[in-house]
Design goal:
The protein is built from 13 helices and 8 strands. By secondary structure, it is of the alpha/beta class. The chain has a single domain, classed as TIM Barrel (Alpha-Beta Barrel). The chain has an 8-stranded parallel beta sheet with strand order 1-2-3-4-5-6-7-8. Strand 7 (212-215), helix 11 and strand 8 (239-241) form a beta-alpha-beta unit. Helix 6 (111-119) runs antiparallel to helix 8 (133-163), helix 11 packs across helix 12 (263-274) and helix 12 crosses helix 13 (278-293).
């Protein structure tokens, strides 16, 4: 009975899931029921391409507890059409769309990095031997890859500012460039740095710019101590909770498919780290999510 009362008192918003992915879509009704059963009453499903965004909107229009975020992920930049803004602007007409994203920068798989992996060449060895023609070409490709990502990022920030939306940010190995691109939009929109895994200093840096961060199941990992500490120290009204479903399942489900019901585990872990109740975390993260996404716009 106490457990049921706790669920009723701790209504959570899952702010970042990919419900259109095949991993989840095949048993979506069961996934949604399990989420509701543990108090996860609203789910934000995130687009990663125009096609994925269209599926996200379709899901949101069919389910009253699902909302859609539309955008093109940076790792989709090379395959994206020249004009992504027209279809995104059209999709944004749906009342179920609550933000633009996920968009941002991702330098983790640069052409030069992938080329080095293929050759299995260590960095120090390359420095001693000098750059090969292949490496020079890969570095040129790096520039083009980054430029394309930056262009799509800026286009989506422009669209968000035009339509009055906030933005879901993906950032990987591109911290400084991401903040530099976002600076001109200060005061025009807010971003949430999803799946936050940075330092306390970085968290404070984005919070000082009036952005937000969001935590996933990483806070439950044995090697997630630093992220857990950040979640314990930043102001409670400056962050949200998510799963990044179907990825990053929390302990004790690590290695299995993640789903929105696991948002509760993320929130419980943060509550323990902060020495407060689950209800407190649920109340504040829900309020932050409502202010950020404006579900009833």
């Amino acid at each position: 009975m106490n457990s049921q009362r706790s669920i009723l008192n701790a209504q959570l918003v899952e702010t970042h899931a990919h419900l259109d992915y095949p991993d989840v879509a095949n048993d979506l009704d069961d996934v949604l029921h399990r989420a509701v059963d543990v108090g996860v009453t609203r789910i934000v499903t995130i687009g990663t391409s125009v096609e994925s965004s269209r599926r996200a909107v379709d899901l949101a229009e069919k389910h009253s507890n699902i909302y859609a975020v539309i955008g093109v992920h940076p790792t989709s930049a090379e395959k994206a059409a020249e004009d992504i803004i027209t279809p995104l602007r059209n999709l944004a007409q749906s009342q179920r769309v609550v933000a633009i994203g996920e968009t941002g920068l991702d330098y983790h798989h640069l052409p030069s990095v992938e080329a080095a992996k293929e050759k299995n060449v260590q960095v120090f060895a390359r420095a001693l031997q000098g750059e090969t023609e292949e490496e020079i070409e890969a570095n040129i490709q790096d520039g083009a890859y980054k430029s394309r990502q930056a262009s799509l990022f800026q286009q989506q920030l422009d669209l968000a500012a035009e339509l009055g939306f906030n933005v879901v940010i993906h950032q990987r190995d591109a911290w400084e460039d991401t903040l530099e691109i976002m600076k001109p939009y200060t005061g025009k929109l807010r971003g949430v740095f999803h799946c936050f895994g940075g330092s306390l200093g970085q968290a404070n840096e984005v919070i000082d710019l009036d952005h937000r961060v969001s935590f996933t199941g990483i806070v439950t990992f044995k090697n997630g101590t630093d992220v857990r500490d950040v979640a314990a120290q930043i102001p409670i009204w400056k962050f949200m909770v998510e799963t990044d479903c179907p990825y990053l399942a929390p302990v004790p489900f690590r290695g299995k498919r993640c789903e929105p019901a696991h948002t509760r585990i993320v929130a419980e872990t943060i509550a323990t780290a902060r020495g407060i109740s689950l209800e407190d975390v649920a109340e504040m993260t829900t309020q932050t999510a409502e202010e950020f996404f404006r579900f009833n716009r």
